[in-house]
Amino acid sequence: MRQTTRYPVKGPNSLWQLYKTVSFWKVAKCFIVIQIGRYTPSLRLKRWLYRTFLKMEIGDYTALAVMVMPDLMFPEYIKIGSNSIIGYNTTILAHEYLINEYRLGEVRIGDRVMIGANSTILPGVTIGNDSVVCAGTVVHRHVPEGAFVGGNPMKIIYTKEERQKQMKDNNG
């Protein structure tokens, strides 16, 4: 189950009340930094921008591909371990604005994680170390350590143990 905190709102839908929940200037700053980062070919520069200006935790040697879209309003809720790859055009959300409430939740991506292109990671999920997320997956719940997952809705294709057995069988 995703771990999010719910904040009820009264009146118009929660997105209409956006600037009651987050500063306009914070969103503007995040928008500018993320747009620069999305098109920056330098992985080091992108990681520095996101760590410095967005307060994201990003481990050493982690690569965010071109067009990766971190959360625009709450990027500080994103934590990515070391030596991971976030594929092209992946979206990492730490918020959900709904009709009668909005929700916030940390996204934790472990070490040595591979996330395929065009995936969407929803708020409040943890992706365990050594996991693989197939391209185009909507990550709507926690991914166990070492698992191989994919699809929409996301399903576990191989557990850590099944992957280890498969690798052992292939390496003979």
UniProtKB/TrEMBL annotation:
Pfam families: Hexapep_2. It comes from the Bacteria. GO terms for molecular function: acyltransferase activity. Keywords: Acyltransferase, Transferase. SUPFAM superfamilies: Trimeric LpxA-like enzymes (SSF51161). The keyword Transit peptide does not apply. The keyword Acyltransferase applies. This is Acyltransferase. It comes from Scopulibacillus cellulosilyticus.
